[in-house]
Amino acid sequence: FFFALSCKKECHYQNRLKGKIKSIFESDDSSTFLFKYDSLSLELKYIYLFSRNLEGRDTTITFMKLDKPNDSIIFVDFLHNKYKILLGGHQIKKIKAIDTITNIEEDICITNTNNEERVTSIYDKGFLSIASTDINFTNFEYSNDNCLKYDCNWIEHLTGSPIQKSLQDSFEYTTIANLNSFPIQNQYYLYSNLSLFNYYLQVGGYYFIRPNKMLISNIYTTHDNINSLTHFDYTILNNYITNVNITLNNNVTNNIVITYY
What is the pTM for the complete model shown? Predict the structure, then answer.
């Protein structure tokens, strides 16, 4: 009786999750992320990282844990760093780093929007201060519910002396509607908090920039007078993205496999 009742509850839970992302495998580092959702609210709750070493030994760690009190998310990563993410609906308005000893909060990412809730600029402190700080995303342009371009400026510290750097990303789109919470639909500067949080939180339906109407086809990046092209090829089954092949300047850099509940 108890087994049958437990099985019935699990089946009901699985049915309610239908269409939510279950796992993402990335070939560039052979890692698999597993996504677990709250059994009542169906909000994203845990992200687990599964890996297999050269000896064939499997390891699974809790990569991130999310709690959602009121209009915010408490976010704890695998290094036990703690963050508070303030929301406006599902849009991320601000991220605060929380000192786990003193509970002092520090703004590390701030989103500014216009009256239409379109992002106009984003300030990002940077999550690796020895690499980059004071990252600013500005000059956003939109058309037909798609982001067309933005500029990014930051201070780079990799050489030991601060250097002002900049890049511009511009986008071309497919004719395929962006129906699901697929995370790789904006390319943010590597050492920004946006690049860390946006990837995972989009799976839970949260975002900095409102999801584009169509799936991205190409990202053109200009950085230090060098132009690069990132291209996306999608495999879609029953309206779900199951595979994405990503190339940088015609060289395959990553193959992503997505499964669903």
Answer: 0.85
